[in-house]
Every structure is written in C-alpha cells, then in structure tokens.
C-alpha cells in the first residue's frame, strides 16, 4: 500500500503539459497546493492541456452519452441552481457555461454534486473547472470532500478524501489518491474560497485510470531531472516504454509523451547526467546558486544607485537563439524559486537580455529569444543566468535547477583551480574553432562583486600566454571594487548591510556604441572585444580613469548626479588613493576662476566651466577625507530638514559631510545646480536652509571654519591622507620675506622658499592703507607676476600650509629700484637694459633681477657690477632667446652670476640659442625644469662655449642640463665645467647631443637618466673627452656615465670613471650603429662601477679598446667588468690594457700588433658565450709573459686558462675550476679557484648586536681561518648569534637530556607524559560512573 501511494504521488508530480510549448515557458509539473486529510488526495493547477483534448477525454473521461461499460446515467444537486445555471451545465463539455448552486453554503448546509454511473465505474482523478465569466474563482471549493457509494441509490456513502486547496487557476485536477470503484461519486463543496457562498462548476470531468504502462511512465523517474529510474520502473523499463507509446495517454497527454520519450532516451544513453548543467543552493555545489538576497533592490532602494547591482548569477551554460530549453526544477514546499535570464553575447546596449523568466517546480520549457544582429564577431545566443533574489533565511538549501538544450562554456569562479580553468579554456577554444557558427568565443570570470563576460580568446592570451592569472585577477578585482564601495560610504556605520559584501557589476564585451570607448547602462558596463579595456579587465591591474569612470556611472545617485562629472569622483579616488598619483584636472584654471576677492557671484564660473574632473567635490574630499561617502549617505538616509531646493540641499548635505559650513565655498565657486538652481550664499538662501545650518552649528555637527579650499592642489588629497594633522605649519604669526621687481610683464614677486612638504603656497594681496588689501592671486611656486599692477598700491603676502593654515600678512612691499646699468644709464627691468644696450655692449647687473622671454638679436655681455647677483625666471617661459647671428655671453668675473629657473616647470629650456652662447667662470645655471629637451640650455644652431660654469639641479626629458639636436651645425666646447645633480627622465642626465662636443676637464657628478646617466650621444654625434671625471652617475637602463651611438675618442689626458651604475654598462654603453660612429675607449680608468652586465663597458655596437701609446685600466675586482655582445664590432686591441674583472665574450678578443703586453694584465672569469667557443683571446705575438690569472667559463664547466700556440692563444685548459661564493646577509662575493686549491675562510664583517659564528656549508659550520680544499662549487653562508642583552655574551645553549628518551619535566618536576596518563584515567572513571548510574536507574524503573 505504501509503495502504491508513493507511486501515485509521483505520478501526479508530473501532471503537466503543452501550454508551455505554446507560451514558450511553463511549469509542466504541478505545484502541490493541497493535501488530503483522508485518503491521500490532492489538487493541482492543470498545466497539461492535453488532458482536456478531445482525444484524451474520449479515451478516459466518463460522459453522459450511453456507451459500452459504465457512463454517467444521472446527476443531482442538493441545493438546486441559481437562475439558468443548471446542474447539467457542469457535464455538457462546454467550459463557457457553468452550474451554480441555488442555496448558499452555511454552517448547516454544504452544496453537493452527485454523479451516478450506469455500472460500476473506476475513477482516480477529477478535472474541475471554475466559472469562466467575470467572476472566475467564485464558488471554488477550498475544501472539497469526495464520497463514493457502491450503491446506485440511498445515502450509504464513504469518504474517499478531503482536499484542501486555494484557488490558483481556472482548471484544477483533483487526485483521489488511488483508484475508486463505485456507482456514485459525490463532490461536497465543504468550504468555498469566495465571499459569495454559492458553489459552482463550469465542468466536472471524472477520469478513469490510464493503462498500466502510461501510469508507470508518469512515475518512472526517481529524481527531479528525470535521469534515473525508480527500481519498480527499471525492472520493466523497456516494456513500459513500448506499451506506453501505444496508449491514448501518449498520443494526447503532453506529460506522458514527454516522460515516455525521455525514458527511451535514458535507456538508449542519448540523455545522461552532466554536472555542468545542474545548479544548486546546497553548500559546496559545483555550480552554486547563491542566496545573498535581493542585491538589485538593495542597490536601487537602499543605496539609490542607478545601475550598480544585479541579481544575475553565472551558470556556465550558454544557449543559441531560438533553442528550446528544458529546465527541471526541484524545491521544498514553500521555497521561492529562482528565475532564468537569457542573453546575447556581444550584443547591443539596448537589446541583449530577456529579463527574468519565471520557473515552476517540475519541467519548464523556455525558448531562447533572438537578439542577434548578424554581427561578424559573434554568433546568435549567449550566457544563461540564474536570478535568485533570496537569502538563506528565505530559501532552503534544497533548490536545484537542471538545464538541457544548451552548452557549457568555461567559467572561473573566485577561488577555483586556475590550471583547471585554463585547460577548460583551451578545450573550449578548440570547439569554437570547429563549431564557430554555434559556440560564441566567450568565457566569464565571477566573484562576489563581479561578472566579467569576455572573449575566451583574450582570456587565453592573458592567462595562458601573458603571464597573468585568473586567481590573482579575481583577488585584485575584489580589492579594487571594495575600495570604491568603501569610498562612497557603503560600509559605513549603522546603515551597513550584509548585502553590501555582494554588491556587484557585470562588465561585458558588447557591440561598440558610437563615439564611446566604453559605456555604462542598465546593470552593465559595455567594453569592446579585443580592445585595451578587455585586456585591462582580464589583467585586473592599472584600471585607470576610464574603467573607474564607468563604474562611477553605475554607482551614481541620480538626485545629485551631474552626468560625466560627479562620477569622476571615483576616478579621482582610484588615481590618488589606489595608484598614489596626483589628481587629474585643471586645478590651475579652477584656482584662477576662484582666487580673486570681490568678484560678483554672476561672474564666478569655477563650477560651471572648470569642474570637469569633479574638482568641486574633490577639493572638499582633499581636506576632509571620507567626505564623499558621508555625502552619499546623507542623500540616502539623512533628514532633509525641510529643504526642497536641490542646490541648497546639496550644500547642506555637503556641509554635514565635511563637518563645516560650506556655504561660503559653494558661493565662491558660483555653484548652480543643473543651471537653474543658483546658490548665491547663505544670506540669499531660504529660511529652511538657514534654519538647518543654524541648528547644525548649534549642535556642533558642523563648525564655522571657512578654509580656502580652492587653494588645494592636485597632490593635496595624498598629503592629507598620509600626514593628516601633521600638515599644519603656520600659526598666524610668521612673516614671509619677499622682494618685488619690475619686469616686462608687470611686477614680479619672489618669496623666500619654504623647503618643507607641509608648505602649500603663497597668497598675494594688493592694495594700500586707505582702500585696504584684497587677494589677487595665489602661487605654488616662489614667484608671482602681477600683469596689471596699479599705481599707488603695493603688495602683501602670506604663506599657506597644506592644512590651509596661514602665516601673518607680510609688511607691504618695496619695489626695487634699478636692476641693470648700460653705459651709465640705470634700468628697472633687465629686458629694458638688453634692448637699450648697443651691439657688443655689456649689461651690468646692479641687483637681483627677473627675466622672461628676453630676445637677444646682437652681440651682448651680461655681468655683475660689484656683487653676487641672481637672474630669476619670472614666468613659465624661456629666459633668453638668442637669435641666429647674435651672441650672448654670461660672465661672473670676481662675483657669482646665477641663472635660476626656480624649479618652475614649463616646456622649454632656460636659454634657447640659434647663435653663439658663452658661459664663463662663476656662472651658475640651476633649478631649471623643462618637460621637453634641455633643462638649462637648448642649442639649435651655432656654438656653445662653457669655461668654468656650473650646471646644477636641472631637469628635462632629454638633456637635463644641455640638449642639442643640431647635428653638424652645432659645436659645444665645454671645459672646466661642473655638472651636478642634473636629471633626465629619458636620455642624458647632463648632456644629450648629436653634434660636435669637446669635453676637457669637465666633472660629472650624481647625474641620472634612463639612458646615459651623465651623457647620451645619439645619431652620430662626435665627442672627444680628455681629463674628465664621471663619478656617481646612474642610468636606470644603459650607460651609467655615458651611452653612445656616435663617434667617441679620448684625448691625451686620462678620463676617470668611478661609482657609476646601470643595468647594462655601469660606466659606458656602446650602441654605435656603424663604423663612422665607432666609439674608441682609451686613456681611461674604471673602478667601483656597477652593472648586471659590463660594470665598466658594455659593447653592443661598433667600438674599440685602446690606441697606440695609450693605456686602459679597468679595476673592477670580482664584478662583471666587460661585456662584448653578439652585435659588437671590435677591432684589434691596441696600447696597454689592465683588465681586472669578469667578462662575457661572444667572440674571442683580438690583441693586435699595436698591443703592448708589457704593462698589461688580465684577471677574472671570462664567460664564453659564442657557439663552440673555447679561446678567450688571440695575440699577434707571444704574450705568455703577461700576467694572466684567467678562468674560462664554458657550458661544460669552468677551467683555468692557459697560453698555447707559442703564447698567441689564451684558451680554456684541462684543469677544472670551481666557484666559491661567500654570502653575508644577502650580499655575495664569488671567486674561481682551480681544483685542489686550499682556500682559507676569512673573518666575516661585524654585525651590531651579534657575534660571527662561522661559515655554513654542506651542513657543517666552518670557523674563520679554517682551510677548505676546493673540489666543487661552494656557497658559504655567514652565520651570526645574537648577543645576550645586558651581558654582551652569547647565551648558553640548552643542555641535551642525559638519558636517551628522557622526558621533559614541568616546573614541579613531573614528567609531561604523566599529565596525559592522569587525564585518560580521569575520563575512564567518569565514564564508568555514568554507566553505573544509568544501569541503577534502569533497574529501579523495572
């Protein structure tokens, strides 16, 4: 009986059908909404429309027509009928008519409909239809009691079942819980669901049982996805399937046909379980359905974000457009069910997804919509998504969804095995290659916060071949998105919601949107396949302004959004906080539009014209970090204090977020929300605004602290975050010293420098005692030029720190008198003096002067008259421009003449010359900053003569001090000059030139660049060097002192290279491209230089070592001194050569007839990298008498080098050599020794707080002074022991136990194992006591 009931329950579980195929989606298995209090009956909405087809009813329904066997012979009701709604209309086969009782149900009356059969009938189901008129559901039996009688007359009835249900559709099938044999059936409408208590029925259809085989297939499957048979069905599966296909039930019932056909497919192996297509809410599921709650609702209604947050979840299943999916759903009674969403991969912004499609328990059919637009770069169809807006409290862990009709594609879920994903990606791309008209080139990466829908091709390129990994990308995406969410206040305070951890975004490749590099719209960000954004998203690094800008769009709160502006707040945050860079935007223009006092509101346009990079709000964030998150939360949650004007509300919420009344700030910048809501200040605001601000001030929520936020610069945010309150520097009492002088542009002020990271800049005021002083400008540098000075007014200055504190106002300025004299005539500006000077004349400087854009068109000399003087750059421009045919000479004589660029960054050199430029003794050129070529000087034509001048702390992209691209039209003669601390971001820290350059007695110290730390010769420049020094220069890449692609020769006096460094060519890197540019290195000394390859010289082009009668001394100890590359062109070596250091040779060295063995020596390890190379060097004559302690390092090992062939060949010998390395605190020195050499270990360097214990090698500790015989490569590591505090002695070592196996004792002397024994015994005693107690208690009960 139990088995029978179970089978009957399963049969009804599949009572479903074709309406799904007609509509494209339907739940074909019934949702059980009722249970039987007696007999096991149940009710379900009729979804298998085949059951009311003419064919099915003809085979299985009892009708009133006379027929062989039993038929309905009569019927009766106990309450009559209402109007014309006769009882016969419930049995007439017409669903548009109905019977309605003529008597209301009451406590003492329940309407009943009794059917009498002509003979004994068998029935197991009743199809019931409610009335189809304007009152559907009226008269529906919420409690239906079914009786049967074996007799044709009388009142002898037995209860079959009582079914509780609720109205859910106009056709319901009541399952009687088994087959009933009877002559009469009575349907008692025990309780009605409608307010009008009149029972009714459009149709009552009594069904006889189907054939055994048809009933068997209805209960064939043991699982929800119909893949495994029940044991009962399995035993006769083939028989049942064959017989079922010959029944009317198969012909007309959608469910029977579906299940019979599926059973046949399972039997044939055509259909089988694939875990890739099953999704589940169970923990640890391969394809999980997350239960994080309604993320979309949270994002829209709580966070008020316009597009961020989706309930879509990745399935790893795709489907082609037009394909019909079979979707099986299993869930507990009462579980809310997920939905399914179909999408187009690489679709268009407005048409790519279906929206959620509801699922029902049982079997659903879904036809995939077609959004394909015949695009060349994708195919019709795309990913399927589960939509599940429920939490673990709302939904059980027993929901399962199984999808058939699609295909699986590779998905990486955060935390998955990256290698397994890459293998899946590779296999999928092979399928795409052969099935490209069906399978899209797609993959997805998903985390709690991200769905990244991209091309599988690009994912494979980045992860399989690009050195990136999906696991690290997933982690970086999480960190990045969490930082953006935190920035806008999502995690802040009591409003934080658990759903915030799952706030997410879908970034997907889409069809291009005209004019946009990417876009954000409707729960997704669209990027383009194969573009840089796709690469960025896969790598998850350097997200940059663009990606963050689009994410900002997604997170905007529409009420306070200024499109393309406010969303840049997130970009600014990422740029500053995450990337450590300065903010983006034209801060100078914003400052210029805001700085001046006395400008009427109507003329202020900082907000409307200069806030493109969200500068308006970023300045507030820069002073009050966290402002934006608090500001956003105010719009989400704060009381609006009765304010209705959007501009006033904006200012009020901003003030609350900053903790300061910002009315003054928004007035100052000309704030006007949406162009139609001006905010002209507190005085012009509404009463509600004033009341709200007043209340906040009284409560201490905000303070009245009108800081001049518009003075903050692009770096202010990072300073505030890093230093906070430490940025305060000025206390209102300090005074600024400054001078003011006339220039051709107006009056220039020079303030004493404040070399302190806390200093921000200087505020400039102009006026007089009568009218007062007002702000006219602000400068971050040391100079300010008033281009419209006013007669009778002077200047005052105060300094501001980065906390926006300020000094006291300085005393009024006194503009200096004459600064220059020409032929006895004094001039107030240097430009006037230059213009007045005759050809060949001299301009004498009387005092410090300012200069900018002074054109020199004649021969002229500039010199101090009687004291040290400075010429300061007055503005971001050239200081002097020397015309072709003109000449300009600077000389200090007995005094110092300094040309000072003041660190003002601009796009040109301090002096640009087309003529003849001379810098004599005691001339200093310093602090010049050029974003282009030539920090101090750019020589485009003519000559430069430098004799004793100093170039200090200048910088440029190329040629930190001097640049010339004039080729053969330019000659630079530089003698006794000093170049110190100059920098180039590209080439030539001090000099970058392709012309004729003669360097005599010049000193280059601490200059730096990427290529050519001091000097970079390019494109065939011709350089001569003599008696120069290069010390402490550095290159990030090549040529710490000198990089050359030009002709280099060394003069008679030795040039010295020391302490220079680079990756390649610590001192010199030769890249000369042909013989005309050959670089000949001679008369030079090298020591203490450093590089990975070629600490002294890296030869990668046409080069030469030594000339007749010269010496070349390379003393680089055990470092890699010389690199002769594969592309090097090196003729015979001449002169004398001392090479003490290691080398790499792609070809043997050639020592010619001009080489002098006497005075020469070779020492070090020479790595032979040429093909089958064994010789180190060839000599024109016997050189075996030359000292040569050399080792040859070959692919087969290291060997001591020997002279052969009459001393003309130096090559690897037979004696093996091994490398002994001494490592001290990560620093290593290494040296080769021949096999059998006895090596004495030295004392290691001292380490404070430690004593040297010895050298560890091979598991043994060797003492200093101990001998070691070399027979293999050996690495000795220095070991130290910490000195005991307070004694200066090393601590005693713990003593070994005297007896093997002795146990340690506790402080009381008890062995440790004793405690374990006591614990075990204690547990056993307690257990025994409990057992005895239970036994005694049991006995007492007996």
Please tell me about this protein's structure:
With 1342 residues, this protein is an alpha/beta fold. The chain has 25 helices and 87 strands. Helix 6 (237-244) packs antiparallel against helix 8 (254-268), helix 11 (456-463) crosses helix 13 and helix 14 packs across helix 15.
Give a brief description:
With 1342 residues, the chain is an alpha/beta fold. The protein is built from 25 helices and 87 strands.
Strand order of the largest sheet: 36-35-37-40-43-47-51-55-59-63-67
- Radius of gyration based on Cα positions: 46 Å
Q: Provide mean pLDDT, rounded.
A: 91
**Mind summarizing the main beta sheet?**
11 strands, mixed
Work out the strand percent: 25-35%
| Category by helix and strand content | alpha/beta
- Low-pLDDT segments: 1-38, 1287-1342
Shape: flat
Question: How far is the first residue's CA from the last residue's CA?
Answer: 38 Å
Question: How many beta-strand elements?
Answer: 87
Helix content class? 10-25%
What kind of oligomer do you see?
single chain
DSSP summary: helix tally: 25
